[in-house]
Design a protein that fits this description.
Blueprint (H helix, E strand, L loop, with lengths): L2 E5 L2 E3 L5 E8 L8 E6 L5 E7 L6 E3 L7 E6 L4 E6 L8 E6 L20 E5 L2
Parallel strand pairs: 2-10
Antiparallel strand pairs: 1-3, 3-8, 4-5, 4-9, 5-6, 7-8, 9-10
């Protein structure tokens, strides 16, 4: 059974940084692409970043490119999202997902292969 637990969210001022972590269990983590998605208040889900099984292959939404960095540690079954130069529009619930829909340009869709999310609030 897939189990994903996000951590690291919180409140930060504009221009600040946060690093989200996601601990994975219940599946062969190193064999699956992983993604981060977010949902802002009153809005739909949006893919933010993804990483393939090859730790060097990553993808980013245009809205976060150059500011966010996704990485994974297959030895620890963890995926990370390092966020810098945060903006108020980055305020959202952030989800870790065992999901490759981002690779195919498909919209995110919550499933049992997603975590419960961690809240990020960017405000002054």
């Amino acid at each position: 059974q897939v189990h994903l637990v996000e951590s690291g969210g919180g409140w930060v001022q504009p221009g600040g940084s946060l690093k989200l972590s996601c601990t994975a269990s219940g599946f062969a983590f190193s064999k699956f692409p992983m993604g981060w998605a977010r949902q802002a208040p009153g809005q739909g889900l949006e893919w933010v970043a993804g990483v393939t099984t090859s730790v060097s292959d990553t993808w980013y939404a245009d809205s976060v490119k150059g500011r966010f960095t996704v990485s994974r540690d297959n030895g620890k079954n963890m995926i990370y999202l390092e966020m810098t130069s945060l903006k108020p529009e980055d305020t959202a619930q952030y989800f870790c997902a065992k999901d490759s829909r981002w690779w195919f340009g498909l919209p995110p869709q919550r499933s049992d292969d997603w975590g419960q999310g961690t809240q990020v609030t960017v405000s002054s």
